[in-house]
Amino acid sequence: MLPEQRLFLRSDAETRFVRLRPLTQLTILGVSTVLIGWSIFATAVLFVESMASGDLRAQQLQEQANYEARLNTLATARDARAAEAASAQARFNTALDQVSAMQSALLASEDHRRELETGIDVIQKTLRRTIKERDDARAEATALKATLARQTGANHTDAGHMKDVQATLDIVAAQLGATASARDDALAQAANAEQAADKATLDERLLVQRNDLIFSKLEQAVSTSMAPLDKVFRSVGLDPQKVLAEIRRGYAAQGGPLLSLPPSGEKQGALDTGRANDILQKLNTMNLYRIAAQKVPMGLPLRTRFVYTSPFGYRSDPFTGGRDFHPGQDMGGAYGSPVYSTADGIVITAGWVNGYGRCVMVQNAFGIQSLYGHLSQIRVRVGQRVSRGERIGDMGNSGRSTGTHLHYEIRVGGKPVNPMSYIKAASNVF
């Protein structure tokens, strides 16, 4: 298989040869085979590792792209909900503007009705005065006739008698002429008064129809606006009647934002005061609802981009891995994002709380408390009164936390409830 070989090496001066024995050839062949095999094996290992690392990197990039796409989808959905909430608020403000305009038109129509009633009273007084003057003229004519009869006696001469009769007739004729003129004037005034009364009656009928249309639109607008407000408070477990009663007690000294018309058991001209007072009462109730909505922690405490990271309820603890109860809603976002109060209230906690880190707790109305945990900075102090939408802190990672987020918690009677019920209810108000 491997016969002896000779390699001749020739130069200008001499020729030499090298003898390759079979064992030497076998050794060279074995070493070459080992080197070539090792090179092929090492190249294959490097190629496989390169492909594996490329697949892992591609998988990581794909997962990152999917996560970013999910974040963008959630942000788009949140922006859409925010746009819907803004649209609902705009519709609510438009309805309030229409109600205000209709109320102004209603008051203007009442003023016009009062002017018409004043005109009718003046016409009626003029007509009664004219009739009285006519009756007085007739009575005076009768008295003149009686005087004439007494003055025409038998002891007068014919010439004197004729003279007295002529004088009397002249006086009677003058009085009758004046009476006839007064009668014609009275009849003309009566006719004008009758026409004015007919016109006033027609105007009042038209005014009644217009007021009825205004009332119908007002009642429809108020009913349409009241239904979602009533639904909002029921959706978060609050009795609307108790809420309104508590707000009325707090604002009793101000007398309410709207004034009712004077009560009456019947219609005053063309204005149905009963319906008007009912509408004004409902408008007052709507205003009380608006005040109550500012005192209930509804809506989001964040206005920047964020994602819901951990919901309310039982979950796997991120530190121990065991099953525990999560009393709030976690929202992940950028470090330092502003955190806003979701309702009016008084700050009862503003400092470090075990488990929550830097924490702010606000006492709201109706026994509700709102809590904001894991803050990087607190911007309020204990005892401070805050309003809905006022900045109270910044998002952070303090306390028992695995990353930057806000722990948002709502408690009713000291017990935590699902904050998402209050967040979703805000879409029907704001």
List keywords for this structure.
430 residues, alpha+beta, Glucose Permease (Domain IIA), 2 domains, 10-stranded antiparallel sheet, 14 strands, elongated
Question: What this model shows, in words?
Answer:
With 430 residues, this protein is of the alpha+beta class. The chain folds into two domains: 92-295; 299-428, Glucose Permease (Domain IIA) (Distorted Sandwich). Helix content is 58%, strand content 18%. It contains five helices and 14 strands. It has helices spanning 22-151, 158-235, 240-250, 273-295, 419-425; strands at residues 5-10, 15-20, 306-310, 313-316, 323-326, 329-333, 338-340, 345-353, 357-363, 368-378, 385-386, 391-395, 405-412, 415-417. Strands 3, 6, 7, 8, 9, 10, 11, 12, 13 and 14 form a ten-stranded antiparallel beta sheet that branches. β1 and β2 form a beta hairpin. α3 (240-250) crosses α4. The longest helix is centred in the N-terminal third of the chain and has 130 residues, at 22-151. The protein starts with a strand and ends in a 5-residue tail after the last helix. The model is unreliable at 264-270 (pLDDT under 50).
